[in-house]
Amino acid sequence: METLPPDKNSERGMPMLLSPTPPVHAPKDPAADPPTAGRARELAGRVAWPSTAERDAGRRWDEDLFTELTRAPRGPGLTGPLIPVELGGDGLSASEAFALLEGCAEGSRDPGLTLAVVTHAVLAVVPLRAFGTPEQRERYLPRMASGEWPGALSLTQTQGAARTPAVRARPGGPGQPGWVLSGELGLVAGGPRAHHFLVVAAHEDGGRTAFVVDRSTPGLRLREERPAAMRTCAWSRLVMDDCPVPKDAVLGTPGGAPGEVEPLLAALDWVFCGAPWLGVMRALVRDAIRTAGERDVFGSPLTHSQTSRFALADLATRCELAEGLLRRAAARFDAGGRPSLPEAAAARLFVTSAARDAAVTAARLAGPLTARGDRLIERTHRDALFFSATGGGPEVLQPVVAAHLLALGQG
């Protein structure tokens, strides 16, 4: 069964290239670490990390902290890295933006906070940049770049055609041009603070259309939602009761979401939502090395144990493999190629497994020290299960990879 459309252009074309910069491959040593990653790591470590454990325990979103983090005066910002300079953004390549998000998560040790950044800066921005009309781009992107207009969407909408949209769209009645949207969406990342939402809605004939819906739309309301994981992200449930939206709220071609916005959203989620987890895994590796040197077993440091050495080697190897897969998939968004759904799906499959295994290995090495400090191991174990379920999980990702290998849906 084909889960997503074949990887080819729609009628309107797929303007997904994000930068004229040639693809950038994974750095081979610390000296090659992208400057954006280093700056983001230092800033997040200084601004966000001191309160990460407390915010997680209290399920608390900190808007002031987010503002300080995203509007730092030095270096690329976290609200508009992929927005062109002429529209007020930083104009980074996809590879540079990926490094920025990775560094933010490694420094903050907070995948929930970084997910809020990814949702606005990537998932809400890139579809507008790729499929928005000139008027839509000029209206939204400069204010999104400044952080004035945060964007949000439901993570249930990043699975392509694998999930039937929970929102229905029908044409407006007499004297009501445009569309009327009804339905509910859960897991809206960034919802409580959003100015607008990216919504994919289904039509009676089975077609699907993407819309940009402002929060001020009549009939739109938000309900509280508190997932068990990723507690430091701002969450809500979006309820739409016969919301009238104008024709110019359509993003892309009416009825064209399956070949335009939906596959792009899937690729963006599978790649860029993995960036925070690469940063978290790096933090786990660093902690595990330190912990292994501090623990004694039968009077000898844990690092003298061959089993522990093998566990550290396996942890570091998985981290490096995850980096290679993710960075290669991210580079596809830059010049010289277009997003590859099979590569993005393969990267997501590996990273979700690697993140869970990293938490288990780190816990085994830490032993009774697992719960000390900012409880990164404990939080990672919980949040990695959530991460593996979003984006569709293996039920969606494996068919995408298999269809590519077997050349299904081609020719």
From TrEMBL:
> Please, which domain of life does this record's source organism belong to?
Bacteria
| Cited SUPFAM superfamilies | Acyl-CoA dehydrogenase C-terminal domain-like (SSF47203), Acyl-CoA dehydrogenase NM domain-like (SSF56645)
Question: Residue ranges of the Acyl-CoA dehydrogenase/oxidase C-terminal domain?
Answer: 274-405
Co-factor(s): FAD
All copies of domain Acyl-CoA dehydrogenase/oxidase N-terminal, residue ranges: 40-148
> What InterPro entries does its record include?
Acyl-CoA_Oxase/DH_mid-dom (IPR006091), Acyl-CoA_Oxase/DH_mid-dom_sf (IPR046373), AcylCo_DH-like_C (IPR036250), AcylCo_DH/oxidase_C (IPR009075), AcylCoA_DH/ox_N (IPR013786), AcylCoA_DH/ox_N_sf (IPR037069), AcylCoA_DH/oxidase_NM_dom_sf (IPR009100)
Q: Which residues form the Acyl-CoA oxidase/dehydrogenase middle domain?
A: 176-243
Q: Which GO terms describe its molecular function?
A: acyl-CoA dehydrogenase activity; flavin adenine dinucleotide binding
Pfam families in alphabetical order: Acyl-CoA_dh_1, Acyl-CoA_dh_M, Acyl-CoA_dh_N
Region named Disordered: 1-44
Keyword line: FAD, Flavoprotein, Oxidoreductase
* Family, per entry: Belongs to the acyl-CoA dehydrogenase family.
Q: Supply the name of the protein.
A: Acyl-CoA dehydrogenase family protein
- Source organism of this protein record: Streptomyces nitrosporeus
Its lineage reads: Bacteria, Bacillati, Actinomycetota, Actinomycetes, Kitasatosporales
